[in-house]
Amino acid sequence: MSAKQLGQLKRRHSIISRRANRLSPSGIRKFFDLLASMEGVISLGVGEPDFTTPWHIRERAIRSIEEGYTHYTSNMGIPELRRELSRHLRERYGVHYDPNEELLITVGVSEALDLVMRAIVNPGNEIIMPDPSFVAYDSCIILAGGEPVRVPTCRENNFELITADIEARITDKTKAILLGFPANPTGAVMSRDRLLEIAELAHRHQMMVVSDEIYDRLVYGVEHTCFASLPGMREQTVFLGGFSKAYAMTGWRIGFAAARKEIIAAMTKIHQYTMMSASTIAQVAAIEALASGEPSVLEMVEDYNRRRKFIVKGLNDIGLTCFEPRGAFYAFPSIAVTGMTSEEFSEQLLIEEKVAVVPGSAFGACGEGYVRCCYATSLADIEEALSRMKRFVNRHKRG
Amino acid sequence: MLKEVLRILENDARTSAKQIATMTGATQSEVSKIIKQAEEDRAILKYKTVINWDKVEDEQVWALIEVKVTPEPEAGFDAIAQRIAHLPQVRSVYLASGTYDLWLVVVEKSEHEIGDFVSQKLSHIEGVQGTDTHFVLKRYKEDGERLDKGVGEKRQPVIL
Questions:
Q1: A368 closest CA partner among A395, A397, A398, A345
Q2: Top-level class of domain B53-139
């Protein structure tokens, strides 16, 4: 058999689908292996709260088990949770969703994102998204058969999306734009004015907007603008959110999608054949979070804010210049002073100083030259990490 | 701003004025001024450490003692409470509602010494009518800090 024939045979019999093969492997795989072999590492690499879920929420979940909440729920989620969520969204953002037809409880925003892409994307459709952005975005689009179209964002614009950059990428294949603000990995928040411009653009081009607002509660000194609350946008937006970040409930896996009836119906169909329903216990816990979690949210936000100011100043002081992130719990400093790529920087920093950060390039080409530092970790650890990074930067400074 | 500074210090008394300044956005001298004022006003009483003495095998017996007292015509409960507060064995004194008037937290080296304290010191104070002593069997949480190992870090070191 010739080499060519062998190649053909292999391709024909490849077990892994082309679609799965197209997904890029996580850019930080090798760090896991490296990390596993090391002790005394301070991690600024974690993308989740360091707080444990507030006790009253955990307690409610424990009680729900005692009470026998061990069955499936309605596909769309426990009606009481949908009612509470509807009330919460109306009070907070002034946007109303019918709890019976326009809200779907999902297994984290991750599932909601997958569902919405599968519900709206036809093969070849283009979905516009920011670069850098959360690693799951382009994979979800690809899995749904769509094409991600990345819009560069840059530090000069505080990593906000600029309308002209979006418009330049709109084609007749464009189906939607996917927004994720406050942003992972940059901590950027979009100003209301810039969002209004995007709303106008979406209206003019009859383009759907998928808005991932999982970090909506983690903003500092600014107000979060809910995209669906902008004039005319409720009908054109699929609003995604969840409990993970605001209530420190990442492990519970509860998110939601809010949109007009026909979209939620399509998403619910896919959800019911693939997921059935989100965890019952976690949904009961989420009801409790909405009912009485507010003081905990405010307390945690205040605490994050202190650490945010601390790390941003610390990074700037050691030459890793950093714009002021107004949301989420990430700082996104430039590593230009070292002349390294973000992967080299992250790897060497881990090996030499035992500090884990995430290379910006893992989030897209525009993340190159930056690293993501999560400040959802103790102040003492942040301080120690900064002093180790200072040594590292002094050693590797160019010129 | 005062409350913000106090909350930070209550959580960690070793946080420096410089660190607090960075966290709050105030200047270092503003923070120092606030702290100094709080100390003068006795809003800040003292900087202490929460210690788990069990770790150093130092024998300590804690007792919660309820005290029934006769209030004085002029000073009410205050005078007698202040007198009790002078005793070095007494860690805390509270005026409380209910059957007993005062609650004391008393720390001694042995149950025997707690007994001596009640019979020879406390009961001799004028106005003390009766006491009810509860020995602490085990401490689980002290000043907001768990004494067991707690939950520890359950997060993976890197998550995207």
A1: A345
A2: alpha beta
